[in-house]
Design brief:
Oligomer: single chain
Shape: globular
Number of strands: 13
Largest sheet: 9 strands, mixed
Strand order of the largest sheet: 5-4-1-8-9-10-11-12-13
Number of helices: 11
Order of helices and strands: EEEHEHEEEHEHEHEHHEEEHHHH
């Protein structure tokens, strides 16, 4: 039987990560740039790779920059086994510069120039799909595709890292909302986490998960409240772990696992993604994730 197809729609950028002590100086040799990790930035691209590693097929739709960094993105997606035929090349690449230092992670973001919008045919993008992943990076097209996906009874899973224009409309069009703790505090600024879950559920989705970093995750689906402690991990770089959670949750959902197990599996995958610079290179396999989950059964 063919694996389920996860479709991700968004604007895909590039992440360039380095350990603070290893960053090349102004007069460094070009070879010193090898110390930097360059890969697709957190968002739908990373989520799709997580879903792929956990047994799904993956298709990326949307756009990336029409420049050298954009070419790097497309090559990385193709090499990972992600269908990128429906990605447009337009504008210049958004770029995340991430410095991992002993006292924390510093992040600088260049937004890039988006260029003129290029239409995406939702019917073509969702052909054969089992689920849709969105991240708020392209709200107009994501809303159109989310509405079609819901008409087809495909789960729409929205990962909210930050609240932007169009976020509220996308929440109403989503089935499952995954929010960072910061985003959740903006959507539901008062009360405890359990109250925040109730407030966000009232905005439209049928299930909500709030990721809490090293404190794990909490979620609600109907009357079911789930608290999932974080899995122990050797942490090198935590940037992008939320996108890994997004894709792993989708893979677990399409495996028809219970809500609590979906959160647990996603939390395990996110934990394992902290081991290297950037989640792309640290992306765990299905066997690694299941082995970590089994440690809570013993």
């Amino acid at each position: 039987m063919q694996a389920p197809l996860v479709v991700g729609l968004g604007r895909i950028g590039v992440s360039i990560s380095g350990l603070g002590p290893n960053l090349p100086g102004i007069d460094a040799a070009a070879a010193d740039l090898a110390a930097l990790a360059t890969a697709p930035a957190p968002g739908v691209a990373v989520a799709l790779r997580a879903a792929l590693r956990l047994g799904c097929r993956a298709r990326a739709c949307g756009s990336h920059g029409a420049d050298l960094l954009g070419q790097l993105v497309r090559t990385a997606l193709r090499d990972a086994g992600i269908d990128s035929e429906l990605l447009h090349t337009i504008g210049t690449s958004a770029c995340e510069l991430v410095t991992v230092a002993p006292d924390g992670t510093l992040r600088t973001r260049y937004a890039g120039e988006r260029g003129q919008p290029m239409p995406i045919d939702p019917e073509v993008a969702l052909e054969g799909a089992s689920a849709l992943l969105i991240d708020g990076s392209d709200p107009r097209d994501q809303l159109r595709m989310a509405e079609l996906a819901r008409k087809r009874k495909l789960p729409v899973i929205f990962d909210v890292g930050e609240v932007r224009d169009g976020t509220s409309d996308l929440i109403m069009a989503s089935d499952i909302l995954i929010a960072s703790e910061r985003a959740a505090s903006e959507l539901a600024p008062r009360g405890e986490l359990s109250d925040a879950l109730d407030e966000i559920l009232a905005l439209g989705p049928r299930a909500v998960v709030i990721t809490l970093g090293d404190k794990g995750a909490i979620g609600r689906h109907g009357d079911t409240l789930v608290r999932c402690p974080a899995f122990p991990s050797e942490v090198l770089d935590s940037f992008g772990a939320g996108s890994v959670f997004h894709g792993a949750f989708a893979a677990a959902l399409l495996s028809e696992l219970p809500f609590a197990r979906c959160i647990e599996l996603a939390a395990a995958a996110a934990s394992l993604s902290l081991r290297e610079l950037g989640p792309w290179s640290a992306m765990p396999s299905r066997d690694e994730v299941l082995a970590l989950v089994r440690t809570r059964r013993t």
